[in-house]
Specification:
Helix content: over 70%
Domain CAAX prenyl protease 2/Lysostaphin resistance protein A-like: 95-180
Largest sheet: none
Number of strands: 0
InterPro entries: Rce1/LyrA-like_dom
GO molecular function: endopeptidase activity; metallopeptidase activity
Transmembrane segments: 27-50, 62-80, 92-110, 131-161, 167-187
Structural class: mainly alpha
Protein name: CPBP family intramembrane metalloprotease
Distance between the termini: 46 Å
Radius of gyration: 16 Å
Amino acid sequence: MTIKWIISIAYLVLTFAIPSLGVPSNIYFLFEHSDIFFLVLIIILFHSTFIREFKEVNLKKLFKYSFFSFSVLFLINILNTSFSEGINPNEVNGSLLLFFLNAATYGAFLEEGIFRFCMIDPQANKKQQYISILISSFLFSIVHGGGLNIFFIGIILSFVYIQTKNIWYSIVAHGFYNTIGILIYLISI
């Protein structure tokens, strides 16, 4: 088990499993913002990889993969559910603008860091990649409420990561998808 998998498991346990069991109010603050801790941890531990891969991003390829991802994800949502199914205005803490910025940037970076960068090795053999994709996509789906469309979103973003061998492509595709989804939701309310 690598350090990346340990980070992923710790993230899931501290951010989702323990709080869902009920945490006494006097220690809830330890879990409430644990995602920030994991984002900072990933950046500190793997900053050289993030910087190197960022420098290797090809804008034409980035646009191609973002457009491909969004098109497939949009189709999945049209066939399965509405874009706004997972967004409940009453659950958005603070301003809608802050929620929007979080989903488009920080959320996409953190989730791609945990569910793709830490759980999937793009250099592994095909069998290991498929197993990692299924586990990663399943956990990604569970964290987002368990929808089948979210599972397929995880698979598409994993495909982008494996094909490009660069986490920035899936981060941008994820952020682009979240941005368009939230904009469509905002237009519809």
